[in-house]
Amino acid sequence: MDLIRILCAIFLPPLGVFLQVGFGLDFWINILLTCLGYIPGIVHAVWVIARK
Length: 52
What we know:
The protein has helices spanning 2-11, 13-21, 25-36, 38-51. By secondary structure, it is mainly α. The chain has one domain (1-51).
Protein backbone atom coordinates (compact mmCIF):
# COMPACT_ATOMS: atom_id res chain seq x y z
CA MET A 1 0.00 0.00 0.00
CA ASP A 2 2.92 2.38 0.65
CA LEU A 3 4.03 1.96 -2.96
CA ILE A 4 0.63 3.20 -4.17
CA ARG A 5 0.81 6.17 -1.78
CA ILE A 6 4.31 7.08 -2.95
CA LEU A 7 3.24 6.90 -6.60
CA CYS A 8 0.28 9.15 -5.78
CA ALA A 9 2.67 11.48 -3.95
CA ILE A 10 4.84 11.81 -7.05
CA PHE A 11 1.99 12.60 -9.43
CA LEU A 12 -0.44 14.36 -7.03
CA PRO A 13 1.32 15.16 -3.74
CA PRO A 14 -1.82 16.19 -1.78
CA LEU A 15 -3.53 12.92 -2.72
CA GLY A 16 -0.65 10.88 -1.33
CA VAL A 17 -0.77 12.82 1.93
CA PHE A 18 -4.56 12.56 2.10
CA LEU A 19 -4.38 8.77 1.72
CA GLN A 20 -1.91 8.66 4.62
CA VAL A 21 -3.32 11.16 7.14
CA GLY A 22 -6.67 12.42 5.86
CA PHE A 23 -7.66 16.09 6.20
CA GLY A 24 -5.08 16.87 8.87
CA LEU A 25 -2.56 19.66 9.21
CA ASP A 26 -0.07 17.80 7.01
CA PHE A 27 -2.60 17.76 4.16
CA TRP A 28 -3.04 21.55 4.26
CA ILE A 29 0.70 22.13 4.54
CA ASN A 30 1.16 19.95 1.49
CA ILE A 31 -1.48 21.89 -0.46
CA LEU A 32 0.40 25.10 0.34
CA LEU A 33 3.80 23.63 -0.59
CA THR A 34 2.43 22.21 -3.84
CA CYS A 35 1.01 25.62 -4.76
CA LEU A 36 4.34 27.26 -4.03
CA GLY A 37 6.27 24.68 -6.03
CA TYR A 38 5.64 21.15 -7.21
CA ILE A 39 8.95 19.73 -5.95
CA PRO A 40 8.51 20.89 -2.31
CA GLY A 41 5.06 19.27 -2.37
CA ILE A 42 6.54 15.97 -3.54
CA VAL A 43 9.32 16.05 -0.95
CA HIS A 44 6.87 16.78 1.86
CA ALA A 45 4.44 14.09 0.69
CA VAL A 46 7.12 11.40 0.51
CA TRP A 47 8.41 12.48 3.92
CA VAL A 48 4.94 12.24 5.48
CA ILE A 49 4.38 8.78 3.95
CA ALA A 50 7.81 7.48 5.01
CA ARG A 51 7.48 8.94 8.52
CA LYS A 52 4.35 6.98 9.44
